[in-house]
Amino acid sequence: MKGGQVASRIETQDSVALIVAIEAIGGRLADAPYDVVERVGRVSFEKVDDIEVRWDHGVIVVSVKDKSLGLSDLKAELVRFAALGMSSSYMYAAFRIEAPSLSGSGARTFADDLERLHSVAASGIISEWIQCRNDFDSVYGISAKVAANTVLSVRDLRRDAATTRAIFASTFRSVFPVQNFSDVALVSLFDEYTSSHMAKSRRRRRTVLLRELQDAILLPLLPVDFIASSSSYLRTPIGYVLDPRRQVANARDYSLKRAAYKNILRRWWKHTWKMTLADFLYRGPIRCPMCNHAVVRAMIGTRGFVCSGCGYQPFLTVLYACDCRSAVPLVRQPSTDGLAVFTELVSEIRREPRTCDNCNRRILPENMFGRIFGFSAPWPVESFSQKMLIDFRISIGWNGFQFRVPGETPLTLLNKGAWDPADPDAFNPSVQ
Predict the structure, then answer these.
(1) Residue 10 belongs to what domain range?
(2) What is the pLDDT of residues 188-204, one digit of tens each?
(3) Same domain, yes or no, for 138 and 280?
(4) Quick check: 372 pLDDT over 90?
(5) How far apart are CA 295 and CA 291, in angstroms?
(6) Taking the CB of residue 389, how many other CB atoms lie within 10 A of it?
């Protein structure tokens, strides 16, 4: 039982560390400077306490609890903080308690008195501060100076708690531009970062730089054209100038990506030219499962397999262009949610090991966004057969050129809200 409690507390540390780090990045963490990222802000584990948010000349010591706290528990924490404050070498030291709940009226009254102490200290009225300080000292027998530098955060951040994911999603949306991303995608990101960033850093006693965490989160959220337009520039105190070294690196990435694309296209042509010839001479093209238009199998151009009528793509593979000009598959049939695609890519890259089948080179994360591209075909492209689309057409209700709902197609039903592509059988022809 004790081992399970320890494991639960450790997992709570990971989720608290992630949420506190994001609050610090967004300038929403109490007692942390708004520009903590610029001040070499970082999160450390189990050096002074469970978690510390540090920056040059300052620190916030975070004590993580996974059970309800009573008055005696709270007083004991402040006494411990007082001892830590006296031994701290930082010019500024603040303290924070993260607890899922409070137990008893005494603890709740203490929380109210602590909040009042903060308000009076922030007002700057000396006479009120002296009175409030003396009252706090006499009632609790604890230094009001330490209490004024302590934040009591009561919220359930245990890793498996539903409230944790809700708080993470809300905090994340308030800091990063992801208002259009689903809760499912954000939960996936929460699981990814608590396990890959925080848990791994805690186990290794490694410091997490807030700048690195911010960049890792922000990079996939930036518009592709913004990244492309700024990646060749170097910022100076008086503006931006083209960096020849970055230009050369970007041009090389573009050249490798084009070469890898052309190699895949050659393989696609070689595999499908007989099918295309048969379609043209006597068989006729495969019909789109969505709109019944002829599906185009590209022989010229760069599109793999797509319907020219409605844009339907039965396949999509995200690939990475290796230095040897070969394509390395990263994700097959990725999500259309940009954030989910990113988490899928990160998950793929972090699998041990990710190498090119042709030259055995490892994929470099720093090159990912300059060399990633998509191709509208299955992988490997030689696995494609027309039977795939024929079987899918039959499964959703096509019989030759006739759909099971007279006068309709899956596309028209989808536009009317009468068909769910995730469940081909769940359609309602009565919806007009």
Answers:
(1) 2-220
(2) 778 888 887 788 888 88
(3) no
(4) no
(5) 10
(6) 18
